[in-house]
Amino acid sequence: MDKLRNIAIELSLMPLNVQKSFIKELFSNISDSRKKMLFETAAYLTCPSSRWVEIGKWMEKHFIKDMKRTPYQVAMMCLNYTKMDTKMKPLFIKLARQAKDRVRKRIFNNDNKKEKKKN
After folding, report:
1. Would you give the DSSP letter of residue 86?
2. At what angle do helices 16-28 and 2-13 cross, to 10 degrees?
3. pTM above the 0.85 mark?
4. Are the C-beta atoms of residues 102 and 73 closer than 8 Å to each other?
5. What is the pLDDT of residue 47?
6. Distances in Å between the alpha carbon of 27 and those of 21, 31, 46, 94?
7. Sign of the Cα pseudo-torsion (109, 114, 117, 118, in order)
8. 3-state per-residue secondary structure call for 36-99
9. pLDDT score, position 86
10. What is the mean pLDDT, run by run of 10 residues, along the chain of 119 residues?
11. Calpha distance 107→65 (Å, rounded)
């Protein structure tokens, strides 16, 4: 782990064009699925966790208003609202799917509790 940390520190001290070259070389040598995973990890690490919670709540609020909206629609609305780069679209669609699923489960659980109280 120390070796990895030293490499990261050395890379952070290099000029920006060298850092970009390193990232370009790294991404040219890994599979597409791995690229997507690394991109999502980088996105989560660069934005504070409170920002992701805020985005999740925003998406849930919009699904509560209208469950007929698709995750894609809400993800695009959220991208415009947060003024994030459109390269984040796949991640936002994933977050929107999770938010819609949470809302759906919450509604389903509330309906079940109401039925049990009636009986």
Report:
1. G
2. 130
3. no
4. no
5. 72
6. 10, 8, 18, 22
7. negative
8. HHHHHHHHHHHCCHHHHHHHHHHHHHHHHHCCCCCHHHHHHHHHHHHCCCHHHHHHHHHHHHHH
9. 86
10. 84 89 88 84 77 89 93 94 88 94 89 69
11. 12
